[in-house]
Amino acid sequence: MSALEKFGVEIFTQHNIFERISADKPFRPENPAFIFIKSGTIKLRQHFSDLELSANMFMVTDPQTIYEMVSVSGDFQSRMVSYKREFISALSLKFNRLITYRYFRQQMNKGVPFPENEMDIVWKSVNFLKFILDSDAEMLYKKEMVEHLFSVFCYQMSGIISKEDSYSMNQMSRQEEIVFVFLTDLSNHHLTERTVEFYAERQSITTRHLSSVVKSITGKSASQIIALIVMNEAKVLLNSSNKPVSEVSSILGFSDQYSFSHFFKKHLDVSPTQYRHQFEN
């Protein structure tokens, strides 16, 4: 049984992080995580932008997002704290909103560093939690120790994120807020709703206004982003399961396999079947 299943949290290093992050095809993390970079760089593609992280930076990953690994440097040194969502749900709504906002900033390709001395403290905290998780010694209250050490880590991160992001979150422009809500709605409804009209109505604005704002903030139209999200979902389903293409098309809300194949080929120039064959040995 993995530490994640047994204790609700698991920590990966640069030596085994790629057991969780696929290096050669799009992937969706099974659980949310914090990824910290101590040295080197890693570049990930998420939704519609590439995010490059270097020393003393961190990012938040979410199971609703599909990522692609673009590159990683030879001196890459990292820690990934992967956790069960229910393990963090008891924390304050403010913290969860800050995490959501941090995720939004990543979508805008805004990876932000945090001070080296704070990274050093968090790094030591994570390493101690990993030491306890990995220990074979008999510990009567190991589960409780893990829970409390993870809480300490969360409070550390809450303090760091609050200090940096609270002001920015409160200063979010009306345009950024529209895109923030659009991306949040899209992550929740993309399997059933693919029209710009639906997402505009969710915010009681016109489709023209939504499209204009999304384009000005992201550089891509709302319809392009919707298509990207659906395509990413399709790629993961095709290369991480043996489900027939007809079943994949049904999961994605297409009326039939033909319309799904037409949509897929329009955006990638290959059919779903051809795409799947690329990853077969």
Automatic annotation (TrEMBL):
It holds the Pfam family HTH_18. InterPro entries: Homeodomain-like_sf (IPR009057), HTH_AraC (IPR018060), Tscrpt_reg_AraC-type_HTH (IPR020449). Residues 176-278 form the HTH araC/xylS-type domain. Keywords: DNA-binding, Transcription, Transcription regulation. SMART domains: HTH_ARAC (SM00342). The keyword Transcription regulation applies. The keyword DNA-binding applies. PANTHER family: ARAC-FAMILY TRANSCRIPTIONAL REGULATOR, TRANSCRIPTIONAL REGULATORY PROTEIN. This is Helix-turn-helix transcriptional regulator. It comes from Chryseobacterium endalhagicum.
